[in-house]
Amino acid sequence: MTNPKPINLALQGGGAHGAYAWGVADKLLEDGRVSIAAITATSAGAMNAAVIAYGMQLNGPAGARTNLEEYWHAVSRIKQSFGMFDVKMFDQIPYFTHVERMVSQMMLEAASLTASPYQFNPLGINPLKDVLEEVIDFRALNGCQAVDLFISATNVKTGKVKVFAKEDLRVEHLLASACLPQLFQAVEIDGEHYWDGGFMGNPSLWPLFYETKVQDLLVVHINPIERDEVPRTPSEISNRMNEISFNSSLLKEMRAIAFVQKLLDEGWLNKSHQGALSNIRFHSIRADVMMRDLSLASKYDTDWDFLCDLKDRGREAATQWLARHLDEVGVQSSVNLKEEFLDL
Known about the structure:
Blueprint: E1 5-11, H1 18-31, E2 34-42, H2 44-76, E3 81-82, E4 85-86, H3 98-114, H4 117-120, H5 127-135, H6 138-142, E5 148-155, E6 161-165, H7 171-177, E7 187-189, E8 192-196, H8 206-211, E9 216-220, H9 234-265, H10 271-274, E10 281-285, H11 304-325, H12 337-342
Parallel strand pairs: 1-2, 1-9, 2-5, 9-10
Antiparallel strand pairs: 3-4, 5-6, 5-8, 7-8
Helix pairs in contact: 1-2, 1-11, 2-5
């Protein structure tokens, strides 16, 4: 096999839907024709990123794949219970279907609108903390030489994105990146308080341009960008609002990349400044088709069969991307940003 082509990954957040990115990463790591140089990530994507990096440090791509499966299997064992509503409380009833379980998850969402996590979760318990500490040795991760990491969180007071690098990463940074304010208390780090990074960087792309030399960027989308139909029911409207808001920061960064590409392609910069800007080769794996049948409530579903289904969807998406676009990595973008994302 020829030397693998280096790429940077950008992983979005999306709760349990992050298992889709698990599948994408699993296929890329298994295939071996690309190598992951750096990952920028948010929320569930941040969990995937840290687990991949630590696994790579332990045993290369095989270690990353093993670590990912261990992480998501541990997630599936979490009994998610907030206040009086338990999203698995009906699982013991034999005839209870996946649809009905969605109802219990929506009850959880409704509860989050009437009480804050400071009321129904006064001790600030987050079951992911134990999972992450079980799967990742953070001291070893800090010294990882295999993959660079950039983890985004949102500063509650300033409203600005904060990016944490792997050298300082602790479990609190990952919990901050995935801190949905309806469910969890803001995570305090060095006197500052943070919420989910998806509000301001889902994920942040700019660290890759300043901190790495790899020009090929593969964005793994979790939140569908386009929908064919106008939402009409309360759950459909809520779902679409969530998708739009958590895609907005990424689309803005895409617009900036498209502008820089235009400057370079059309020779608008004089020669003394051309070397200061990176001409990013942009690639993407989109979830618009693969994930369009899933509701907002399903982002809280940690049933193992459901997570494995998402993984399979991600592996299939990565398989299709490799077949169609691998030859373009290192040569040119496989995505026209203006046509596919920016409606220009």
